[in-house]
């Protein structure tokens, strides 16, 4: 990547910065405006699929970009889970355990990937764990799993504000 300009201004990282701004707008509105909060949260998550695409297309994959992407994903999910813990206090412990598992597993995987010289945590040993191999080598599987996880948590968030409210004439 030498001679290509500052890594901080690579297109995938610029997309990452936009994702961070969108996430912060979402966090600000989470307690008071679920429509704005969920819209910005989901838009930030949607852009997640474009930073990796841009990195591959423009040959701008870097360790910084991989870390930025991972940290943005983890922070966004953690902030939503904290909010869910406030909205659903009965489920605080399972949500906390989910946070711990999410952070620790991603950190361990990312750290071990970087220690072996990979520029991305998505580069894995093809002879290794078959579940991780499928997860990281099939973009469709990765997309479905990540978007499904985020949509599940976003749905729980929205459910709190729509419980007992009729939607299209039907109470939820």
From TrEMBL:
Topology in membrane: Multi-pass membrane protein
Cofactors (names): Mn(2+); Mg(2+)
Positions of transmembrane segments: 7-29
Keyword DNA-binding among record annotations: no
Protein EC: 2.7.8.11
InterPro entries for the chain: CDP-OH_P_trans, CDP-OH_PTrfase_TM_dom, CDP_ALCOHOL_P_TRANSF_CS, CDP_diag_ino_3_P_euk
Organism lineage string: Eukaryota, Metazoa, Chordata, Craniata, Vertebrata
Keyword Transmembrane helix among record annotations: yes
Main location, first listed in the record: membrane
Cellular localization per UniProt: Membrane
GO term, biological process aspect, one: phosphatidylinositol biosynthetic process
The organism's place on the tree of life at top rank: Eukaryota
Keyword annotations from UniProtKB, A to Z: Lipid biosynthesis, Lipid metabolism, Magnesium, Manganese, Membrane, Metal-binding, Phospholipid biosynthesis, Phospholipid metabolism, Transferase, Transmembrane, Transmembrane helix
Function: Catalyzes the biosynthesis of phosphatidylinositol (PtdIns) as well as PtdIns:inositol exchange reaction. May thus act to reduce an excessive cellular PtdIns content. The exchange activity is due to the reverse reaction of PtdIns synthase and is dependent on CMP, which is tightly bound to the enzyme.
An example Gene Ontology CC term for this record: Golgi apparatus
Organism: Callorhinchus milii
Name of the protein this chain belongs to: CDP-diacylglycerol--inositol 3-phosphatidyltransferase
Family to which the UniProt record says this protein belongs: Belongs to the CDP-alcohol phosphatidyltransferase class-I family.
Pfam families found in the cross-reference section: CDP-OH_P_transf (PF01066)
Catalytic EC class: transferase
A GO term, aspect molecular function: CDP-diacylglycerol-inositol 3-phosphatidyltransferase activity
